[in-house]
């Protein structure tokens, strides 16, 4: 969490900074509250940055095996458990867990990509 959170925060900040303030002012002038403006205008327009940060964080988290195995052996993350299974039982023990991790990674990336396409197709002005 500590390693990948800057990726999400910085990408989200860029997404929020890209929102045209005039659109927020127009929403407020048309009678929307600050919260309604955030949910209906600001957040949807900044979703590209948020999604980019999520994708970067996910990719970075998948690559943190070395640090995890050295610094925080317990509780075991899935990559750590795959390594332990490989050391104790060989490829036969590690392969099923590796397939589950690969499958879940593909599903997460596809869901994030679909969400990104939905955002691009909605009302992102760029």
Would you identify the regions where 5 or more consecutive residues have pLDDT less than 50?
A: none
Q: Give the SSE order as H and E letters.
A: HHHHHH
Helix content estimate: over 70%
CATH homology superfamily: MetI-like
Strand percentage lies at under 5%
What is the CATH C-level name? Mainly Alpha
The number of distinct helices, counting runs of at least 4 residues, comes to 6
Q: Which geometry do the CA atoms define?
A: elongated
The CATH architecture assignment turns out to be Orthogonal Bundle
Rg calc: 20 Å
Tally of structural domains: 1
Q: What's the total count of β strands? A: 0
Q: How far apart are the first and last residues' alpha carbons, in Å? A: 30 Å
Q: Major sheet: size, sense and barrel closure?
A: none
| Mean pLDDT reading | 84
Tell me the structural class: mainly alpha
Concise synopsis of the structure shown:
The chain has 126 residues and is mostly helical.
How does this structure look, described?
With 126 residues, the protein is mainly α. It contains six helices and no strands. It has one domain: MetI-like fold, CATH 1.10.3720.10. Helix 3 runs antiparallel to helix 6. 10% of the residues are buried.
Strand and helix map with partners:
Blueprint: H1 5-17, H2 21-29, H3 34-62, H4 65-71, H5 78-89, H6 91-121
Task: Spell out the key features of this protein.
6 helices; MetI-like fold; about 130 residues; mainly alpha
């Amino acid at each position: 969490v500590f390693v990948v959170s800057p990726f999400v925060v910085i990408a989200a900040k860029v997404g929020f900074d890209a929102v045209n303030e005039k659109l927020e002012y127009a929403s407020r002038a048309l009678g929307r509250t600050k919260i309604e403006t955030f949910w209906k205008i600001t957040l949807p327009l900044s979703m590209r940055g948020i999604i980019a940060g999520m994708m970067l964080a996910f990719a970075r988290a998948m690559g943190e095996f070395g640090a995890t195995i050295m610094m925080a052996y317990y509780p075991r993350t899935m990559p750590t458990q795959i390594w332990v299974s490989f050391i104790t039982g060989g490829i036969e023990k590690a392969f099923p867990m590796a397939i589950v991790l690969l499958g879940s990674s593909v599903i997460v990336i596809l869901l994030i990509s679909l969400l990104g396409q939905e955002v691009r197709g909605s009302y992102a002005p760029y």
